[in-house]
Amino acid sequence: MKQRIITAVIAAAVFLPIVLYGGAPFLLMVYLLATISLYELLKMRHLKLLSVPGIISLILLWIFLLPSDYQNLIEDLDYTKVELALIAVLLFLTYTVATKNRFTFDDVAFSTMAILYIGIGFYYFLETRDAGIEFVFYSLLIVWATDSGAYFIGRAMGKNKLWPEISPNKTVEGFVGGIICALVVAIVFSIFAEKIDAPLLELIIITVLLSIFGQIGDLVESALKRHYNVKDSGSLLPGHGGILDRFDSLLFVWPLIHFFQLI
What we know:
This protein is mainly alpha-helical. The protein contains 11 helices and 2 strands; from the N terminus they run αααααααββαααα. It has 2 domains: about 130 residues, no CATH class; about 130 residues, no CATH class.
């Protein structure tokens, strides 16, 4: 626990000032976080980032991450992100032939999904910051409150396993406790955040959904790690694992903030 707290304090001291400042440093940080996440995910399947499919994945991820203010860079090439993704898939499939199926169709599917999973999540991190710092802190507080509530209430009251095949320690009581904590934090935060001006009922519904899907995001990454028989996605953050371990919930929450039209 001591190691987790020290790492969290140091990480927050680096992460939060850059988020607050925004601009080019924030953009570069998001690109770095997404790149490390892609590396961690590919490593689970024993795929190397510094390889032909790894470099294709990385280039496409970077293209996906281009925020709306930089869309003209793609438009000048007369391509859309979807068209570039399709080109990448064709290159992946071509590589299966070039390697005589050492890089398989399953690897193509995994690489493509890895790009979408990470790219969509971090792209909407950029878009959320562009909409206003309040929305970033709202998303962070929802996830942190959910995680903390689920952990402490689960330990104090948890009796019924939530999904033991995926994450043996999570309980139904912790799941519900996380949602309640997220609701309390969101309502208090909305009082002070001018841009969070949704009607109370709408805010409650959206917060509940974000808390639920944040926990699902956590379970999705747990399922991935269990499938590939790894404990953590990486070791960059002592006591916490890798970057993907810390952002798994947020990769679900950031897009949904937009899809639920809170922004």
